[in-house]
Specification:
10 helices; alpha/beta; two-stranded antiparallel ribbon; single chain; Rossmann fold; eight-stranded mixed sheet
C-alpha cells in the first residue's frame, strides 16, 4: 500500500462475521485508492485457538497481508483480573501499548473491540470507536443496544464513530448515521412484538428467540449494512485532514472543536455506488 501520510491502526476482538466484513471493506477501499491510508497494524485481543470466529478473523488478516499483533485478554493474568479489574486493565493496556505504539499509527479505530480502554490508553492513543447507536443512544454491546431500543419503542436507530474516553460509549462523536424504525416496513414487526408481549414478558421472548426475533434481526441487519460506509466516511475525513482526533476531542483542520457530523447522505451514496453490503464475507484472493 506504500508509504502514506496517514497511518491507521485497527483494534478488534474478532468475535463475529461482522468484524471480518468491516475490515475487509476498509481494506478494499484502501487498495482501490479511495482511502489514502496505510493500515499500520491490526491488533486482536484474542490469540489463535481461543474461538473459531476469532481464528477466522486472524486468518483474514494474514490473507490480506496486514501487520498482525495479537495478545490474549482472557489468558492474561486471570489472578489479577479476579483481584482488581482496574489494575488488570491497566496492566493489560500497557502490554498492548508496548506492542502497537512502535508501529506508529496516527489514529486507532476500534471495530468490534470488546474491551474497555483504560485511562492510560485513552491518553496515549487517539482512538475512534464504532458504536451501534447514534449520539445520545444506548450504551453497551450491539445486542444490548437493540434490545434497549425495542424496549423503549424507539423511533430510530443508527451508529456513530466517537473518540474513546474513560466514559464508556460517550466520547465526542466524529460522525453518525440514523435510520427510522417507524416506517411501513417495520410496522408489522412492531405489531408482532407487541402481540407477543401480551402473553410473555420481554425477558421470556429474548430467552426463547434471542437474535432470531424478527424485529431485532431487522434492526441489526439495517445497521450492519450501513456500518462499513460510516467507517469509510470517517476514515476518509481523518486521512484527508478534514477532521482530526486527539485524546478526548474532535477538531477541524484548524484545530477548532466540532460537533459530530450526520452522514446519512454520504452513507446512502456510498451504498448506492457499491451496490450495498450485506453481512456476508465474499472470497478474498490469496496474496496481493
Amino acid at each position: 500500500m506504500g508509504e502514506l501520510a496517514f497511518r491507521l491502526g485497527w483494534f478488534s476482538t474478532g468475535r463475529d462475521e461482522a468484524a471480518r466484513m468491516l475490515l475487509e471493506v476498509v481494506y478494499r477501499e484502501v487498495v482501490s485508492g479511495f482511502l489514502p491510508v496505510e493500515l499500520a497494524c491490526v491488533f486482536c485481543s484474542r490469540e489463535p485457538g481461543e474461538t473459531p470466529e476469532s481464528d477466522r478473523f486472524l486468518e483474514l488478516v494474514r490473507d490480506l497481508g496486514l501487520p498482525l499483533v495479537y495478545f490474549s485478554a482472557s489468558r492474561f493474568r486471570p489472578d489479577l483480573r479476579r483481584a482488581s479489574v482496574e489494575e488488570w486493565r491497566l496492566a493489560y493496556d500497557r502490554e498492548v501499548l508496548a506492542r502497537v505504539e512502535p508501529l506508529g499509527a496516527d489514529a486507532v479505530l476500534l471495530a468490534g473491540y470488546m474491551l474497555i480502554a483504560g485511562p492510560e490508553m485513552c491518553r496515549r492513543l487517539a482512538m475512534v470507536n464504532l458504536h451501534p447507536a447514534p449520539p445520545g443512544g444506548p450504551a453497551g454491546t450491539w445486542q444490548e443496544v437493540i434490545w434497549t431500543l425495542i424496549g423503549e419503542g424507539a423511533r430510530e436507530a443508527g451508529a456513530m464513530t466517537h473518540v474513546v474516553t474513560e466514559e464508556l460509549d460517550r466520547g465526542p462523536a466524529v460522525a453518525y448515521f440514523t435510520f427510522p424504525l417507524d416506517t411501513p416496513e417495520y410496522a408489522p414487526l412492531w405489531e408482532q412484538w407487541h402481540a407477543k408481549c401480551r402473553t410473555r414478558t420481554p425477558a421470556e421472548i429474548i430467552a426463547a428467540e434471542g437474535e432470531n426475533e424478527p424485529l431485532f434481526r431487522k434492526i441489526r441487519a439495517d445497521g450492519v449494512r450501513r456500518e462499513p460506509a460510516l467507517l469509510v466516511v470517517t476514515i476518509k475525513a481523518l486521512a484527508e485532514g478534514g477532521l482530526r482526533v486527539a485524546p478526548g476531542a474532535v477538531c477541524d483542520a484548524a484545530g477548532r472543536p466540532v460537533p459530530g457530523r450526520c452522514v446519512n447522505e454520504e452513507v446512502a451514496a456510498w451504498l448506492a455506488a457499491r451496490g450495498g453490503w450485506g453481512c456476508s464475507i465474499s472470497p478474498i484472493a490469496r496474496g496481493r
